[in-house]
Every structure is written in structure tokens, then in C-alpha cells.
Automatic annotation (TrEMBL):
<dbReference type="GO" id="GO:0015031">
    <property type="term" value="P:protein transport"/>
</dbReference>
<dbReference type="InterPro" id="IPR014756">
    <property type="entry name" value="Ig_E-set"/>
</dbReference>
<dbReference type="GO" id="GO:0005737">
    <property type="term" value="C:cytoplasm"/>
</dbReference>
<dbReference type="InterPro" id="IPR011021">
    <property type="entry name" value="Arrestin-like_N"/>
</dbReference>
<dbReference type="InterPro" id="IPR050357">
    <property type="entry name" value="Arrestin_domain-protein"/>
</dbReference>
<dbReference type="InterPro" id="IPR014752">
    <property type="entry name" value="Arrestin-like_C"/>
</dbReference>
<dbReference type="Pfam" id="PF00339">
    <property type="entry name" value="Arrestin_N"/>
</dbReference>
<feature type="domain" description="Arrestin-like N-terminal">
    <location>
        <begin position="17"/>
        <end position="145"/>
    </location>
</feature>
<comment type="similarity">
    <text>Belongs to the arrestin family.</text>
</comment>
<protein>
    <recommendedName>
        <fullName>Arrestin-like N-terminal domain-containing protein</fullName>
    </recommendedName>
</protein>
Length: 185
């Protein structure tokens, strides 16, 4: 059987299962081994990345455009092993609490035909030996970015209208104030 794993996330917002930019992603990692197993690393990570792909046609050829971007990559080393050191994990149950902080300026989770932005908590065990086998477990989380206005000051608008009169002055200057309509309760 090898290893079984559970990534238990703490609900972030009054019992709902999404996170906002700047919040902490917390929870408990639980895993069980049924026999002694040697590993070179065991890493719990918070990963947020974007991927897009689309194509355009130019004359007789098709161009494929691909883009990748990382928004957050945070790691937690579970073995605390030195580089190249092999650690044997004995049979039994293990628990590790975790806490990752999402950056303030990240985009929301998204998926469409052109691409996606995904966030996940991922556990990866890498076994020792000539062939580097790995066990990987992950859970996708939904993240909403923080929407901020583009213009920090009030928006000023103006209108310059030219009128022709049979007098010496060619312009009529008008000034107006627009009041915000009060909401009825």
C-alpha cells in the first residue's frame, strides 16, 4: 500500500471554503505509512500558477502562443534532511499543522478555454534510489483576489462646448456640480 494522505484545510471565511488574497491557508496534513520507507525529501507546498494557450493563423501557418506565470510558491520541508541525506520514515500515523500566507496582490482563481489560474496545497514525497519515484497528493483551493479601484481619487469630468454668438465673446463658460443621488432606505 505505501502511503495514504489527507490534506485537511481549515475553512477561512466563516465556514466557506475559499480564500482571499492576503489570508492564511491553514490546516493539518495527515499521512500513514504501512512499512518503513526511505525518502530524500518530503515537501508540503502552496503553489499558485497561471497557464494560457491560444493560436493565431498567419497566411499558411498556425502560431501557438503559450504563457506560464507563478503567483505564489511556498514550501515547508517535513523531513528537515540535509541535501542528499536519506531519511527512513517508520510505519505509523503522522500529523503536521501548516500555515501558508497568500500574497496581497494575486489574481483570483479562474478557468476558461484559453487558460487557468489555479492554487493548490501539494505534498510530494521523493523516494531514494536510482530511479527517483515520487508520491504526490494535492488539493485545489479557490482564491479571490483583492479588487482595488484603478483611480484612487474622485473622478473629475468636464465638457468644453463652443457656441457662436453675434457678439465679441465666442465662448460661454458653464460650471456645474453633479450630486450623488441619495439611496432610499
Amino acid at each position: 500500500m505505501g502511503v495514504t494522505c489527507q490534506l485537511l484545510l481549515t475553512k477561512a471565511n466563516e465556514g466557506v471554503s475559499y480564500y482571499k488574497a492576503g489570508q492564511s491557508v491553514t490546516g493539518t496534513l495527515k499521512y500513514v505509512f504501512d512499512k518503513p520507507t526511505e525518502f530524500t525529501s518530503a515537501t508540503l507546498s502552496l503553489i499558485g500558477s497561471g497557464f494560457c494557450q491560444w493560436q493565431t493563423q498567419l497566411a499558411n501557418s498556425i502560431l501557438i502562443h503559450v504563457g506560464n506565470e507563478d503567483y505564489v510558491v511556498q514550501h515547508m520541508d517535513l523531513l528537515q534532511a540535509k541535501q542528499g541525506e536519506v531519511v527512513t520514515i517508520q510505519p505509523g500515523s503522522y500529523e503536521h499543522p501548516f500555515n501558508f500566507k497568500l500574497p496581497e496582490e494575486i489574481p483570483s482563481s479562474h478557468k476558461d478555454d484559453v487558460g487557468n489560474i489555479t492554487y493548490k496545497v501539494e505534498l510530494r514525497f521523493i523516494k531514494s534510489g536510482l530511479v527517483k519515484n515520487s508520491n504526490k497528493f494535492n488539493t485545489i483551493i479557490t482564491v479571490y483576489g483583492d479588487v482595488k479601484p484603478n483611480i484612487p481619487q474622485p473622478l473629475m469630468a468636464g465638457l468644453n462646448k463652443e457656441y457662436k454668438f453675434l457678439c465679441r465673446k465666442n465662448f460661454l463658460n458653464l460650471k456645474a456640480q453633479i450630486r450623488k443621488k441619495k439611496q432610499r432606505s
